Amino acid sequence: MTSSASLPRIGLGMAALGRPGYINLDRYITFGSDHSQRTVDRMQTQSNLVLDRLFQLCSTLHQSNDVDISSGNNYSSLPWIDCARSYGLSEQFVGEYLRSRHISSKDVYVSSKWGYAYVANFAVTLPEAAPHEIKDHSVEQFLKQVKETDSFLGEYINLYQIHSATFESGVLENVQVHHALDQCRRDRGWKIGLSVSSPQQDQIIRAAMKIRVDDRPLFDSVQCTYNLLEQRPGSALQEAHNMGMDIIIKEGLANGRILHHPVVIRYSEQLSCQPDQLALAVILAQPFQARVLSGAVTPEQLESNFQVASVQEMLQANTSLLKEIMEACVVPSEEYWAERAALAWN
Fold this sequence. Notes:
Blueprint: E1 10-13, H1 27-31, H2 40-63, E2 80-82, H3 90-100, E3 109-114, E4 116-118, E5 133-135, H4 139-153, E6 157-165, H5 175-188, E7 191-196, H6 201-209, E8 212-213, E9 216-217, E10 221-225, H7 234-243, E11 246-250, H8 262-270, H9 275-284, E12 291-294, H10 299-306, H11 309-317, H12 319-329, H13 333-341
Parallel strand pairs: 1-2, 1-12, 2-3, 3-6, 6-7, 7-10, 10-11, 11-12
Antiparallel strand pairs: 4-5, 8-9
Pfam families: Aldo_ket_red
Organism: Fistulifera solaris (Oleaginous diatom)
InterPro entries: AKR2_Oxidoreductase (IPR053135), NAD(P)_OxRdtase_dom_sf (IPR036812), NADP_OxRdtase_dom (IPR023210)
């Protein structure tokens, strides 16, 4: 079992690699516009290419003399992969990859999530109003999905998370689920976390921080959407960090929207970096010491995401510039999530 202390600052999220359709912009550039070509074999091959690059990048970091574990910029050499039951076949892809490469559980950090069932049957376009995934935060769903995750990734899992906890799903009040999660931690040695979504992310985080089982905090980590556009959860993330929770950031590029943002493009040109590097550096420069998931779907995108250290250091040394960039990009949470909800699966 790998300790959270060795979890790297940047990992690979499998949301856009484990299934043919997702809401990230510009997927046609990588996968083409003919959805029928996005077969299971094609997506697994693409996943393997990106995973290969992840391990190569981490190996390079391990060999580099520039890695300073004692500094605030801990770009650990340990590969970190984040899956979910609803990310299509992500758990299957990752499990088969790790075993085929004979990778030890000590040499990788794997997190996954339960709470959504993937129902799109590997299709991109569905009948009108048909969902790609269905949320169910009942204890029965947890017990079912934890077994499924175990069958694909059991020996590799380090962290298991509630997928998109909300007040409406009732999971924050479901004592049966809380005890089942705590029992999972005791029986399997997995850390327990939650991911959050919606304009209420900050409120959900604060509510989750109060949940205890046998006088122990239930959650070891929180995975939250935070980026240059959506900054509202920042204070709640700082509180969670102060409490000792690991902070994991998803959608750091706002599903690709940030890459087209004129302000981000202007500042990245000014700082001689790529827009993705600026966006991720802003997150990594925050005082709540987040870890960030890359949503890359090509080796080149992942490599660019990893080349963020110098930009982060520049922003940490120039806090007035950091504040200037953040203030120029932020939008109200309600606006951010409304625009996200309007993104088409493609």
